[in-house]
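Weekly sync, protein design subgroup
Attendees: M.S., D.O., the rotation student, P.L. (late)

Item 1: inverse folding check
M.S. brought a backbone from last month's batch and wanted to see whether the design step gives back something sensible before we order anything. D.O. pointed out we never logged the input encoding, so this time it goes straight into the notes. Structure tokens as presented (416 positions):
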């Protein structure tokens, strides 16, 4: 989309890096804060919401922005470290205005998919134009797209029922699941529900794993039970078990009955363990191979994009069957060892099994000690019959060691 001199469409800059005058990146732009004024006056831009230090969001006044050229944001100096808190008189252009249905001056309706901001002669910024798409007149065809002046639409700032989320999600498409989860926390329940309705099942599962328990239960509660069961099946078994365990017993049983039998069985197995034990933290889906598998096969398995880094770091070697609970556990092969051997080497020739591995009832503290003592990011969990029943990863241990409700804490407080 082209832009006239001085006019910048928000899709060009949202998600872009924010730099200080020395050229060091200090964060990423996540939204634009505007003040809706009286009729006939376009909204004035007050500042930007910038995400810094992982997930903390701070307010950057527009007066401290020296450049928006080439999609990069340059500031006059150090950012304010106080957490951004939206005021009642403020509107977030990306989260609250995109996807609204508006009425054009010819009486037709259209959906807002982009917004332009422009600087006036006094160097103040305001929202000037809207990129809109009208409804299709024929099935299967998109309606016409227009760039219209702010004054030529009505209904943008009112609370519209059924505001969509397609274009908002486009701005979030490249965000990590943890960052998208953090963005959802900032929204109203109504807007959060609208966005959840647009996410595909796999993406929603990834995001749910990063949300605090209270929001997980809230979101699962607004889903159709069949979809809720599918999303649970897309989650890691350990995360799904934690979520199911926090639901009322009747609801939990209903969802388990709707899940695929294999997925439900994994969750049921994990629900029998105490939460702060190896069994309560483990996943039942580590990378397991028989001893006659080759290094090449092992490398292909750990390259699978769906694996988290901690699970991809270790291959567990077992006798058949290689689904948990497996046959006899023979040992582990760390990914560095795989990189040092010829591709045709058998994994059974390089296994390590010289540690007293945890049992399902091993305590959280003992598991953490093992990870620290041997500099590991994951551990096998072995039952009394020397079968592999799962693996505990360091991220799950940290989830339990950090203070309760840590996902909901203001990161400013964490950093002092």
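Designed sequence read out in the meeting:
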């Amino acid at each position: 989309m082209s832009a006239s001199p001085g006019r910048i469409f928000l899709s060009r800059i949202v998600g872009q890096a924010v730099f200080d005058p020395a050229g060091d990146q200090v964060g990423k732009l996540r939204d634009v804060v505007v003040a809706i004024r009286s009729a006939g006056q376009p909204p004035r831009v007050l500042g930007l919401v910038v995400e810094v230090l992982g997930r903390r969001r701070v307010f950057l006044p527009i007066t401290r922005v020296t450049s928006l050229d080439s999609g990069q944001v340059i500031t006059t100096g150090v950012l304010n470290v106080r957490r951004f808190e939206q005021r009642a008189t403020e509107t977030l252009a990306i989260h609250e205005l995109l996807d609204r249905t508006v009425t054009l001056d010819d009486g037709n309706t259209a959906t807002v998919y982009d917004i332009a901001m422009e600087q006036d002669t006094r160097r103040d910024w305001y929202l000037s134009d809207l990129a809109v798409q009208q409804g299709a007149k024929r099935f299967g065809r998109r309606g016409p797209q227009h760039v219209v002046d702010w004054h030529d639409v009505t209904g943008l700032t009112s609370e519209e029922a059924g505001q969509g989320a397609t274009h908002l999600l486009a701005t979030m498409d490249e965000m990590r699941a943890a960052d998208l989860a953090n963005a959802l926390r900032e929204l109203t329940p109504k807007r959060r529900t609208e966005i959840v309705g647009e996410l595909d099942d796999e993406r929603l599962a990834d995001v749910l794993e990063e949300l605090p328990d209270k929001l997980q239960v809230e979101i699962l509660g607004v889903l159709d039970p069949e979809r809720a069961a599918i999303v649970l099946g897309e989650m890691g078994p350990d995360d799904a078990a934690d979520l199911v365990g926090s639901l009322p017993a009747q609801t939990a049983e209903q969802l388990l009955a709707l899940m695929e039998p294999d997925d439900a069985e994994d969750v049921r197995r994990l629900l029998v363990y105490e939460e702060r034990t190896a069994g309560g933290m483990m996943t039942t889906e580590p990378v397991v191979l028989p001893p006659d598998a080759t290094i090449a096969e092992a490398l292909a398995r750990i390259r699978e994009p769906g694996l988290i880094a901690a699970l991809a770091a270790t291959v567990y070697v077992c006798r058949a069957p290689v689904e948990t609970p497996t046959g006899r556990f023979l040992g582990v092969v760390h990914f560095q060892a795989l990189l040092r051997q010829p591709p045709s080497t058998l994994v059974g020739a390089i296994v390590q099994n010289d540690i007293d591995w945890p049992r399902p009832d091993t305590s959280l503290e003992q598991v953490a000690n093992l990870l620290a003592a041997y500099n590991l990011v994951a551990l096998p969990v072995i039952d009394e019959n020397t079968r592999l029943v799962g693996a505990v990863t360091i991220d799950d241990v940290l989830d339990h060691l950090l203070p309760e409700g840590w996902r909901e804490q203001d990161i400013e407080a964490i950093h002092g």
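Discussion: Residues 7-92 form a domain with the SH3 type barrels. fold (CATH 2.30.30.240). The longest strand covers residues 25-35.
Action: P.L. to compare against the previous round before Friday.
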